[in-house]
Amino acid sequence: MNTVCVVGASLAGLLTARALRGQGYTGHLVLVGEERHRPYDRPPLSKDFLRGAIDEADIALEGEGEELDAEWRLGVAATALDAVARRVTLSDATSIRADGIVIATGASARTLRGSRGLAGVHTLRTLDDARALRRELGSGKRLVVIGGGFIGAEVAATACELGLDVTLVESGPAPMAGVLGAPMAEAIATLHEGRGVRLVRGAYVSELTGTGRVDGVRLADGTHLPADVVVVGIGAIPNTSWLEGSGLELGDGVLCDEGGGTRVPSVVAVGDCAAWFDPAQGGHHRIEHWTGARQRAAVAAATLLSGGTARLEPARPAYFWSDQFDVKIQFIGHAGHADSVTVEEGDFAGHSFLAVYRQGERPVAVLGVNQVRLFTRWRRRLETAPVQAG
Question: SS3 of 188, please?
Answer without folding.
Answer: helix
